[in-house]
Amino acid sequence: MTKAEPDGNDLAAAAIRRLTGLKPGNPRAIFTSDLSVNEFLLVREAGFRPIGMVLGSSIYHVGLQVGRWSRNQELTTLSQAMYHARDLAMTRMEAEAAALRADGIVGVRLTVEPRAFGEDVAEFLAIGTAVKAGTPPPGGGQWRNSKGRPFTSDLSGQDFWTLIQAGYAPLGMVMGTCVYHIAHQKMSAVLPSLGKNIEIAQFTQALYDARELAMARMQAEAAELHAEGIVGVQLNAHNHRWGGHTTEFFSIGTAIRPLRADHHIQRPTMVLSLDG
């Protein structure tokens, strides 16, 4: 799934006026933040100054795709729609942060809300607090990620402070999605299991496969950012309005990197014992 590029020309006129008043150097600028008081103080303690709240929105109509009644399968058209809608919201939020010359965005929330415009219409909203670093990262370089974009993180202010103190920095939020149709059971398979404790292997395999696809796509995004790992991973299931046999599995987390070239997570060493 291809990510969109942040584009400042995509910003609404009202957003441009609001951001102009928040830019560093404006003596009358008053920052805005959705951080709690404790989070605000810890982000400042970590060396970052909040500039202002940034957001991105996409009102998206999710199309229709029908799965075969008796077959487990990914509904790729719907997977792409759910990914693209979220990506539009995220990239517009990043464009607002870039317009403020921010180094990153902390406390990001990414939500999906049904709207009354139609049965399959929802608003995808990304919102967070743009921050500017007081000093370059240890070892030189910049706080922005390997693609030159402001980093994004859905970690709490407390977790963000802990991450920085431990010698790691966020690269960006990474995500993976999979909309999957879970096959209906045939009557010949249902009747023998009535009244029994028994695994429904067909359902187990479907959910397992769908989760693996979502997780693998999230990991692929992290690899593109040259991340060492992903922290704070959430793996959620949403039925939205598709009914009980079609479900979206959505995974999201914050990709991280070490601040120093010689600082990496110690991986376990394999020890082999050879007899004879």
TrEMBL record:
Belongs to the UPF0145 family. InterPro entries: UPF0145_dom_sf, UPF0145_YbjQ-like. Pfam families: YbjQ_1. This is Uncharacterized conserved protein YbjQ, UPF0145 family.
